[in-house]
Amino acid sequence: MMTIEQFGRRLRARELTAVRVTEECLRRIEADNSRLNAFILVMADEAVRQAREADKDLAAGHDRGPLHGVPISIKDLFDIRGVPTTAASRVREGHVAERDAPSMAHLRQAGAVFLGKTNLHEFAFGTTNEDSAFGPARNPHDPTRSPGGSSGGSAASVAAGMALATIGSDTGGSIRIPAAACGIVGLKPSLGEVSTDGVVPLSRTMDHVGPLTQTVSDACLVYHALLGDARSPLPAPMPLHGLRLAVLRKYFCDRLDDEVRARFDEALARLRGAGVLIDEVEIGHAADIAPVYLHIVLSDAAAFHAATLDTMPERYTPAVRARLEMGRTVLAEDYVRALKGREVLRREVDAALGQHDALALPALPIPAPPLGATSVQVGGSSEPVRNAMLRLTQLFDVTGHPAISVPAGRTSTGLPCSVQLVGCRMQTDALLKVALACEAQIAGPPAPRSGTLGG
Amino acid sequence: MNIDAWLQAAIADAERRGLPELKPILETLARATAALRAADFNEHASGGRHAAVGSPQTSVGGRTS
Questions:
Q1: Shortest CB distance from B64 goes to which of A280, A288, A323?
Q2: pLDDT score at A379
Q3: Closest-CA residue to A208 (of A172, A159, A182, A179)
Q4: Does B37 touch chain A (CB under 8 A)?
Q5: Which SS3 state, helix, strand or coil, does residue A275 take?
């Protein structure tokens, strides 16, 4: 599947039309969705109508910018006027959105074509996409495995060529984890940059909205469109020579799958060879990250779900219901302790970035886990799947720093690996310049083709 | 409320509400809460704390190599 940049060039050269590419995406959805379960709702008629309008506008000289006519999928957590927002839960039965979420309105304004709503872990409260009222989404690289979560259907839709890009949300890693598991780019902007209004919340204080795309350039384009600034030009990559990266090795790299570690170290070696200056930093309170995250996310989620947990508990999937009920037991004094820890961690990440352009670490310590697995072997010991998948991403939801997951080769069985880059707060564009510069070195030589559907 | 008392109350409440399956995850949460309470950034009404944040004893995002 072509990138957004390639699509834009060919659209404006009259080599293709938005209708033709939209119909190609719909054909792939038709062919593969029964196997991957990436989409909850396919908006075929509406998508073709939007694409036709985009073609007509362009012919009339009305060019809306880089997202003009681009077919994208949307995590079913975002309100799109006139269609249900299910959050992959029976709790939402009967809901129909009255208006677009502001982020969706910005995409519509930018000329994007909405293909449909994608599957997710129920209420975005999980990392595997297994607990969904619509059944699990599957990984295009190996359908017996999870696509990651919670934006799993979104990531699968792009990795399988069903959409040119997708929109997800990230509260503990829900953009970067599935991007890493499916071998695409996932950007979590800085906290508060992209509106979360009209998005079903998991944690009002940690939710982020961002794109999952095939390339870093495409992530830049969609990110700016989400901000309502679709015509913003692509930033120039930072020069690689002299770029300063700091690796978070202690705690973060203590337990990694052997092949994930190998791909990470190879990426660092290529970057070093290209003139990037790499040293190491530590986060002093790294051991407190998980308790701080857990107490905040559980409390925030429990507050949102308390009424429906009492009135319609049977409509939740059992695992998500149990997690939400657990949140109702957190004491206020412990929530306040977690908020204190959040400030400490925020200062520590700020300090770690001090003399560096970005931090570097893997996004996911393991390749995509098999569906149904409750624990995984990592670094010689067993760890619950959820803990392992959140371990490298949740810190930056707690602190609000922008972070991006970039593909970094494959394991010997063809499963994607990734490198995560983290930038300074409210400097997402600066992080994107670093990621643009590093993307090719992180990716390394092209892997032999695997069994990716439509990839 | 100390963690043992909290855990017992939470498990009893879960059982009363017909949710005995919450017990293992409440035990997991109790371990996380114990870790949170033991963190050196917590303040104490006595005027002290385990270790002052940003003090020389605390390793804060420093370069190590």
A1: A280
A2: 85
A3: A172
A4: yes
A5: coil
Please tell me the distance from the alpha carbon of residue A378 to that of residue A211, in angstroms, as a whole number: 29
Instruction: Determine how many CB atoms are found less than 10 A away from the CB of residue A435.
Output: 30
DSSP string, A31-72: HHHHHH--EEEE-HHHHHHHHHHHHHHHHTT----TTTT-EE
B43 touching chain A per CB within 8 A: yes
Choosing among B2, B41, B65, which should be mutated to test the A contact, i.e. which has the most A CBs within 10 A?
Answer: B41
What's the start-to-end Cα distance of chain B, in Å? 43
Annotated active-site residue in A154, A174, A405, A418:
A174
Nearest-Å Rg of the Cα atoms of chain A is: 20
Do A405 and A392 meet the contact criterion of CB atoms below 8 Å apart? no
Cis peptide before A405 (omega within 30 of 0): no
DSSP string, chain B: --HHHHHHHHHHHHHHTT-GGGHHHHHHHHHHHHHHHHSTT-B-TTS-BSS-TTSTTS--S-B--
Supply angle C-alpha A230, A231, A236, rounded to 5. Answer: 105
Residue count of chain B, please give it: 65
Percent of chain A with pLDDT over 70: 98
Report pLDDT for B50. Answer: 57
- What pLDDT digit, counting tens, does each position of A200-234 carry? 999 999 999 999 999 999 999 999 999 999 999 89
- What is the C-alpha separation between A243 and A356, in angstroms, rounded? 8
Tell me how close the Cα of A283 comes to any Cα of chain B, in angstroms.
5
B3 inside 8 A of chain A by CB: no
ipTM of the complex in this document: 0.92
Mutation target to probe the B interface, by most B beta carbons within 10 A, among A280, A293, A297, A326 is A326
pLDDT at B61: 38
d(CA A250, CA A77): 35
- Nearest-CA distance A301 → chain B (Å): 15
Question: CB–CB of A183/A141 below 8 Å?
Answer: yes
- Whole-model pTM: value is 0.94
CA B61 to CA A339: how far, in whole Å?
Answer: 19
Helices A216-226 and A102-109 cross at an angle (nearest 10°) of: 110
Contact A337 B21 (CB under 8 A): no
Task: Provide the pLDDT confidence category of residue A136 given band limits of 50, 70 and 90.
Answer: very high
